[in-house]
Amino acid sequence: MSVLSAKGLRVRLGARDVLNGVDADFAPGQVTAVLGPNGAGKSTLLACLAGLRRPDVGSVELDGAGVRALAPRVRARRIGLLPQTPEVAWPVSARTVVGLGRIPYNGSRGLTSEDEAAVARAMDAAGVAELAERDVTTLSGGERGRVLIARALAGEPEWLLADEPLAGLDPGHQLDVAALFRDLAAGSGRGVVVTLHDLSMAARMADRILVLADGGLLADGPPHEALAPAVLAQAYGVEARFTQGEAGPLIEIVGRGR
Amino acid sequence: MKPPPRAVVLLTLTLLTLGLALLSLMAGRVWAPLSAFTDMSDPRWPIVFELRTPRTLLAILVGAALGMSGAAMQGYTRNPLADPGVLGVSAMAALGAVGTLYFGVAAATYWMLPAAAVTGAMAGVLLLLALAGSTSSAVTFVLAGVILNTVASAGVALALNLAPSPWAVNEIVNWLMGSLADRSFDELTMAAPLIAAGCALLLTTGRALDALTLGETGARSLGVDMGRMRWALALGVGLAAGASVAATGVVSFVGLVTPHLMRPLVGAQPGKLLVPSALAGAVIVLAADILVRLTPSAAEVKLGVAMAALGGPFFLGLLLAMRRRMS
Question: Which domains does chain A have, with CATH numbers?
Answer without folding.
Answer: 4-83+157-256 (3.40.50.300)
